[in-house]
Amino acid sequence: MFEKLKDLCILNGASGDEKNVRDYIIKCIDGNAEYHTDNLGNLIVFKRGRKTPKNKIMLAAHMDEVGLIATSVRSDGTVTVDEIGGVSPSVVIGRQVNVGKDGLSGVVGSRAVHKLSADERKKAPEMSGLYVDFGAADREEALKYISPGDYIYFSSEYTEYGEGYVRCKAIDDRYGCCALIEMINSEPEYDAYYVFTVQEELGCRGAKTAAFAVKPDIAVVMETTTASDIPGVSGNKRVCEFGKGAVVSYMDRSTMYDRELYKIAFEAAAEKGIPCQTKTLIAGGNDSGAIHVSGSGVRTIAVSAPCRYLHSPSCVVKKSDLEACYKMAQELLSRTAQL
To answer: In this structure, what DSSP letter does residue 124 have?
Structure first.
């Protein structure tokens, strides 16, 4: 599973530019399931299991990652940018990036600190004050390689370190994609739909059309969620913690999760020895927000992997937590099929 995770994370695929990720997934599952791509770019897969479920089950993960997009090219050859998804300017200053369709090496710059006023130094940086320098001599040269609307991606290596830690860009939500690929290529107990969505980072847009098309009774969303288990953070603001397994939420800012499914998840964890925890802060959201209100309503649960430094060039997760999420997804498929 982790070799696929490495391949998926290294691929570039911000919202609206998911083709490389989709092509990789198709290559992995081709011959093992039925699939098609909808008009928005979602990959919708149907995998037959050993049994036909009473309920139509859909598992979902999003293909897109956060990134930057070029907004203008300046006279000195540098490129102004805006965010794709929730990217904090403070985590990208000085970072190496890949620019445009040719993936040219660049760096995110900002005004030098000695050029800032005393008041400006006290304020958090804004995306409007950043730019990308990729070595162009002037605007004319820069326009040979990049235009407004082109994508700019974080340059990141997949690294395993410490006792089971993984660092890379785009683990949100390439891990979820990886888990679904593994389930499709296994021998699941029940028939199910596996949906790889687009544009989650821009407001769960792909999930809206995918859920409308599939019309599931029950949905399991595979995601990552913020782990703030770092020095200086205590109590419920830690959100979730590394090493404590899958995160199953009862509520976030876009979804009130199905109470019976929430209960079933923790029952499965206790019976099967799957490390499991709840999210201690009501915050954030994911594709569940669009899925659970689709059509006449969808009973929805999210299974999330704890992730430090989310939406940055260096997301960090722990392997044991990812394994717990995968086992939980398998259990939920089996246990919800006949509800």
So the answer is: P
